[in-house]
Amino acid sequence: MSSHTQQSSLHIENMTEGAPARAILKFAVPLILGYLLQQMYLIIDAAIVGRWIGVNALAAVGASSSIMFLIMGFCNGACAGFAIPVAQAFGAGDYHKMRCYVSNALRIAVVFSVVITLLSCLLCEKILQLVNTPNDIFHDAYVFLFLQFCAIPFTITYNLYAGQIRALGNSKQPFYFLIVSSLVNILLDVVLILLLGMGVEGAGIATLLSQAFASWLCYRFIRRHMPMLVPQGDERQFDNKRISILLNNGVPMGLQFSITGIGIIMLQSANNALGTVYVASFTAALRIKYLFTCVLENIGVAMATYCGQNIGAGRIDRIKSGVKDAMLVMLAYFVLTVAVIYPFADEMMMLFVNNGEQEVIANAALLMRIANWFYPSLGILVILRYSIQGLGYSNLSMMSGVMEMLARCGVSLWLVPALTWTGVCYADPVAWVMADLFLIPAFWWLMKRLKGKNIKR
Q1: Which Gene Ontology cellular-component terms appear in the entry (predicted)?
Q2: CA neighbor of 147 nearest in space, from 71, 203, 69
Q3: Of 450, 146, 208, nearest to 318 (Cα)?
Q4: CA gyration radius, the chain
Q5: Which pLDDT value is given to residue 11?
Q6: 86, 172, 277, 379: which could form a disulfide with 330 (CB 3.0–4.6 Å)?
């Protein structure tokens, strides 16, 4: 065993051994807790904005949420894709190759950070016009979105380093960093919004600074406690072949989120055209919805690392059983969400607005309840999508994003004009079902293909 391995053995987790359900849950629970915490601070952020500044400010923060999903989704997806070859090399025990991937992923991330940040900031005003942002909230929406774009380099840095840490099976440390950065964000919200009266600008600055802090924490942890991830000597050299492999994994995963984001932008554009009340309703509902759906999302994220390590180790037999166990966990969680969301959706929305905003509360609660019944469809989607990505077939999983985009575009063009807010409520369920119609047969075909290759070996 090398010194790199010895020094970092306490911080890695081999997912190619032991019971699949135990390995998946052990990895997923810190992820889930971390993202629950992250969503909690987004909820607190929105509650501070909505209750202390007003409904218009809440709408301004939410008016560009689809744009943020499009751009940040690409950044986060690409970084998750860059971690897949790292996980596969780790599963195969080839640490030299793993560190070569790490150094070349950093090169790509720097280029992405510069290009995406510059383009986003320059086009900020045009983007808000594109999604029919109401005039009465346009200025605040612009300020908030511009500051979010300025934070893109820190978002990419955090997701790149966190993805590499998770590739080695360690999902706890990024969770701890999210705890700290979330507390920093909330503290900055209180100081900048409540004490200094900076309004929406304060919310944007708080998010930027907390993201920068999380990035620094990840960097420091890798340097001090995971030296096996730090490239040395010729491992730092530019490698065209590994750059190509990283891009083949990262770009399709990033585009998958961006393609999905196009459908969400069309949906938000259709919803924004309904008026400020509906923009506020959409913002409030999404904050709570993400609090619940991030659990499903992170079961899927766990499957990407699980499948990546096992395909790297040649353990094809464990992949199918892992997917089955993840599905059972997802269904158990769905039952829990029904017991919480259905009776208490209205009360949850009162976190963001006063009791007098009954139209906003009723609209947001309706969206929550309708989406909740389709959580199993979302669970199937994320488990199969991330499993396919972890196996190295990002192009295949990207097609599910195309299906989601087409579904949301159809809802935006036909269902929303016909049913107004009710049409908006059914956009996500329709998109999830459409993606499943592609992913289920795709995963079945892929497992047959991999099983055949394994037999030949």
Answers
A1: plasma membrane
A2: 203
A3: 450
A4: 21
A5: 58
A6: 379
b/e string for 299-328 if b means 16 or more Cβ within 10 A?
A: bbbbbbbbbbbbbbbebbebbeebbebbbe
Distance in angstroms (rounded) separating the CA atoms of residues 269 and 38: 26
**Residue with structure tokens 């999380």?**
214
Q: Give the C-alpha separation, 387 to 368, whole Å.
A: 27
> In the structure encoding, which two tokens stand for residue 191, read together?
């100081």
Residue 45: the pLDDT is 60
pLDDT of 160 above 90 = yes
Three-state SS annotation for the chain: CCHHHHHHHHHCCCCCCCCHHHHHHHHHHHHHHHHHHHHHHHHHHHHHHHHHHCHHHHHHHHCCHHHHHHHHHHHHHHHHHHHHHHHHHHHHCCHHHHHHHHHHHHHHHHHHHHHHHHHHHHCHHHHHHHCCCCHHHHHHHHHHHHHHHHCHHHHHHHHHHHHHHHHCCCCHHHHHHHHHHHHHHHHHHHHHHHHCCCCHHHHHHHHHHHHHHHHHHHHHHHHHHCHHHCCCHHHHCCCHHHHHHHHHHHHHHHHHHHHHHHHHHHHHHHHHCCCHHHHHHHHHHHHHHHHHHHHHHHHHHHHHHHHHHHHHCCCHHHHHHHHHHHHHHHHHHHHHHHHHHHHHHHHHHCCCCCCCCHHHHHHHHHHHHHHHCCHHHHHHHHHHHHHHHHCCCHHHHHHHHHHHHHHHHHHHHHHHHHHCHHHHHCHHHHHHHHHHHHHHHHHHHHHHHHHHHHHHC
d(Cα 31, Cα 212) in Å, to the nearest integer? 20
pTM of the model: 0.75
Q: Distances from the Cα of 62 to the Cαs of 202, 279, 282, 411, in angstroms? A: 15, 7, 8, 20
Q: Are 158 and 211 in contact (CB under 8 A)?
A: yes
pLDDT digits (tens, 9 = 90+) for 264-321: 778 877 887 888 888 888 877 887 888 899 899 889 988 988 998 898 888 888 998 9
Mean pLDDT along residues 392-419: 88
Distance CA 207, CA 151 (A): 8
The Cα–Cα gap between 10 and 165 comes to 12
The residues, ordered by sequence, that sit 6+ positions from 383 with a Cβ below 8 Å of its Cβ are: 299, 300, 303, 323, 326, 327, 330
**Euclidean distance between CA atoms 412 and 425, whole angstroms:** 11
Residue 255 near residue 401, CB atoms below 8 Å? yes
> Are 91 and 313 within 8 A, CB to CB?
yes
Give every CB contact of residue 359 below 8 A, 6+ residues apart in sequence.
277, 281
